[in-house]
Amino acid sequence: MARPLSEEKRDAILAAAAELIAGQGLGASTAKIAKAAGVAEGTLFTYFPTKDDLLNQLFLEIETDLAGAVLAAGLPNGDPRDRVRHLWDRLIDWGLANPVRRKALRQLKVSGRIRADILRRFDVQFREARAMVEQCLAGRGDPARMPFYIDAVLLGLAEIAMDAITANPQDRESIRQAGFDLFWKGSAA
């Protein structure tokens, strides 16, 4: 009879993968990930049959955590600018609290190794928030460009703001505000 899989080992493997991918990119070997997790490489493959399975599960876990943090307080009502600012603040807060996971997520997003079904799950998790942002931006710009405003501009400026805050923590609030103002004003173009 096979022993049940340990949740602690699985979590250790995912944490080690995030750390190494954040620091070394997707070239981090499964041997290094296993060693950092304190397990044998064969044990890693018991939990994740292939490196791509590990990468996809890590992507899903990080995105699920991010969605939980961004959507935990629910989607606000009221002024459109305040509603989008609420999501912006949750996104920035999560990124600053999870620098390793944020860097790993950035690597995973551009890797080309995340399966379509995993990407669809990500889209579903954020569907309501995305719809709210689109609704708040309605009439501010070209509706055909909304995916660009959200995916490239909003998320890109959030990354820039988080990097700037990390480098200049004393200016945390002014950088957060400046990043949001750039997005909000730019979405009216």
Helices and strands in order:
Blueprint: H1 7-24, H2 30-37, H3 41-47, H4 51-71, H5 80-97, H6 99-109, H7 116-125, H8 127-137, H9 146-167, H10 172-186
Helix pairs in contact: 1-2, 1-6, 2-3, 4-5, 4-6, 4-7, 5-8, 5-9, 9-10
In short:
The protein has helices spanning 7-24, 30-37, 41-47, 51-71, 80-97, 99-109, 116-125, 127-137, 146-167, 172-186. By secondary structure, it is mostly helical. The mean pLDDT is 92.
Structure write-up:
Helix 1 (7-24) crosses helix 6 (99-109). The chain is built from 10 helices and no strands. 75% of the residues lie in helices and 0% in strands. The longest helix is centred in the last third of the chain and has 22 residues, at 146-167. The chain is mainly alpha-helical and 189 residues long.
Keywords:
10 helices, 189 residues, mainly alpha
Task: Please mark out the parts with pLDDT under 50 across 5 or more consecutive residues, or reply none.
Answer: none
- Counting H and I runs of at least 4 residues, what is the number of helices? 10
Shape: elongated
| End-to-end Cα distance | 64 Å
- Portion of residues in helices? over 70%
- What is the mean pLDDT? 92
Instruction: Give the helices and strands as they follow along the chain.
Output: HHHHHHHHHH
Strand content: under 5%
Largest sheet properties: none
Q: Structural class of the secondary elements?
A: mainly alpha
Q: What's the total count of β strands?
A: 0
Q: Radius of gyration, rounded?
A: 18 Å
